[in-house]
Amino acid sequence: MPLSFLPLFLCWGVFVDVSDASSDWCYTGCAHTPSHWSSISGSSCGGDRQSPIDIVTSRAVTDSSLHNFTLVNFSSSHVFKSLTNTGHTVKCILEENEVEVTGGGLNATYSTIQFHFHWGDADHHPGSEHTVDGHRYPMEMHIVSLKKGLSVEQATVDPEGIAVLGFFINATDDGETSQTWDDFTSYLMNITTKGSVVDVSHNISIADLIGDVDLTKFYRYMGSLTTPNCNEAVVWTVFQEPIKVPKNLMERFPEQTELFHVYRPTQHLNGRHVFASPAIPPAPSHAWCYDDHCDYSPEHWHLLPESHCDGERQSPINIKKDDAMEDKLLDDFTYTKFDDKHTMKYIINTGHTVKCVLKDGMVEVSGGGLGYVYSTLQFHFHWGSGSDDSVGSEHTVDSKRYPMEMHIVNMRKDLTLEQAKEAPNGLAVLGFFIEPADGHKSGGGGSEHHEESSTSHTDPWKTFTSYLSAIKNISSQVEVTEDISIDDLIGDVDRSMYYRYNGSLTTPSCNEAVVWTVFKEPIKVDKDLMKMFPHRAGYHNVYRPTQSLHSRKVYTTAASSAPGPMMLILLLACFCVFAI
Ligand SMILES: *[C@@H]1O[C@H](CO)[C@@H](O)[C@H](O)[C@H]1NC(C)=O
Ligand SMILES: *[C@@H]1O[C@H](CO)[C@@H](O)[C@H](O)[C@H]1NC(C)=O
Ligand SMILES: *[C@@H]1O[C@H](CO)[C@@H](O)[C@H](O)[C@H]1NC(C)=O
Ligand SMILES: *[C@@H]1O[C@H](CO)[C@@H](O)[C@H](O)[C@H]1NC(C)=O
Ligand SMILES: *[C@@H]1O[C@H](CO)[C@@H](O)[C@H](O)[C@H]1NC(C)=O
Ligand SMILES: *[C@@H]1O[C@H](CO)[C@@H](O)[C@H](O)[C@H]1NC(C)=O
Ligand SMILES: *[C@@H]1O[C@H](CO)[C@@H](O)[C@H](O)[C@H]1NC(C)=O
Ligand SMILES: *[C@@H]1O[C@H](CO)[C@@H](O)[C@H](O)[C@H]1NC(C)=O
Ligand SMILES: [Zn+2]
Ligand SMILES: [Zn+2]
């Protein structure tokens, strides 16, 4: 090569690197490994709708429009054209315009053009691209289809131009064989080098390869091609059940092709949702929480199945004293067995709160403008960080948040729980703020004072909180054996003064079934006893942010519950006039 050509050659090299780099990428051992694909010119690999992803099953939202696929000629044994080693994968090219995919919640008909594979290595290092709850399967097969009538170029710029069906591949139980997969993988010995091609003469169909995978169970999300240029044009379908292939046949992929670890790492969801077809049973427990260390933080609660959390009568709220309208119908409550010292059954650490479940059918509440008799089911607590001045009530009053809040949950006696959750007044919750008892500013040497100044308030709370050390583990519970009543815990709070509004449960599913009563006067509890809730339960800040009032009104009991003398005279006067 003449020396003068050298600069040109180098230049050309750089040029290729920048503009035609889609052929100059790899999974390992070159400049453009997956973490550098985004710097490939013209690529979308750094975009925010990338594939593959980790499918978090508990977070998948069931979508009833994801019904059955219609797969045309998937059972035809005459559609496989050839098998190619592309240098990145093994690809099976199909006869044109024979195989089609529709249904499955797709908006169009898609023509299937090829399928290919992703794998790890023969040393049992798995190589699927998608993962499920962090689990990577040994292999993954991708069946690629273009929106009917579009060219590859057109499809890659259409946000739903390409439909890929993804199938996980798992090992069969030992001893099981598969003639289909044996036949199919026997072609790999003919394509050991990059660019080699072999015609497929066996009569194998796509359906033969898929086997008995349940095609009604799948996940759906909008993503991208998983190789450069990572075009964000793919409607992804990932089937839940894996195809079963004997291990020794799977090993032929890395062994024959000498391609290893041919899968892209999972990409961020960036706020995308993964949907599940209705045939996938909902995950047993959907992880919601109050912070962002779980799948569903409060701003995502509305995505949970059956959730009402984005409705217009949500709780808690900020109560503005001046906007609360007096309502004379808000009279005193009638409490049944609130003073009974043997109504508490057990106390449980739910992982979200500490809840005291009451014995069935004993405790009731009525009056207070409720209009129905309600059965009292349980009470529980909301709290803050547990530091000295922490606050953690759910409701706020003129934006003031109290240290804690106690909720006594009641259900209309004439309804079942299921009915009550659907009725606008099926549930009644009595909310009590909790604040530190006076003279218990802890810090300084005041601790000796606790015994001395402990009044009737302190003892029941001491009794109640003494159970907390037995339920440090989430889901653990402890039977209540000591004598303690709900009245003991509420103490001498003036229960004739309260706010009233229509709201919801403050935890998922946030059913808008609650008539709320928020008492104005807080319960006083020793600060050190309050701290035991976060410290024993092991979690903090268990309260939902306040919700928008929308068009609702907050009512309040009249300023003075007994009519003043002037009022009496007026009433009397009215009565007289009426009588005459
Ligand atoms: C979907 O397929 C399943 C199993 O093949 C079948 O039982 C069901 O009836 C189908 N549903 C619809 C809506 O076609
Ligand atoms: C299915 O395949 C047959 C031939 O194998 C072909 O005649 C037919 O057109 C195909 N169906 C569709 C919808 O393409
Ligand atoms: C179907 O079309 C709707 C409306 O354009 C779009 O929001 C949705 O993402 C599309 N779904 C699929 C699977 O392409
Ligand atoms: C995959 O195969 C292994 C070994 O046969 C088995 O233990 C595992 O349960 C399978 N996983 C799934 C999800 O089918
Ligand atoms: C594949 O390779 C084997 C072994 O080299 C050879 O016998 C066979 O003819 C080849 N098949 C095709 C279709 O090329
Ligand atoms: C494939 O099918 C064709 C016609 O259906 C038949 O002639 C041929 O023998 C079959 N090939 C094999 C390998 O079974
Ligand atoms: C909490 O769980 C651990 C282990 O899971 C157990 O050893 C311990 O006894 C449990 N504690 C309580 C109070 O249940
Ligand atoms: C609650 O809603 C009902 C109608 O659904 C209404 O009659 C009632 O006055 C409301 N109560 C409050 C306190 O807003
Ligand atoms: Zn692929
Ligand atoms: Zn609550």
From TrEMBL:
It is an enzyme of class 4 (lyase). Pfam families: Carb_anhydrase. GO terms for cellular component: plasma membrane. Its cofactor is Zn(2+). Residues 23-278, 286-558 form the Alpha-carbonic anhydrase domain. The keyword Lipoprotein does not apply. It catalyses: hydrogencarbonate + H(+) = CO2 + H2O. PANTHER family: CARBONIC ANHYDRASE (PTHR18952:SF200). Belongs to the alpha-carbonic anhydrase family. Reversible hydration of carbon dioxide. This is Carbonic anhydrase. The lineage of its organism: Eukaryota, Metazoa, Chordata, Craniata, Vertebrata. The gene is LOC115377817.
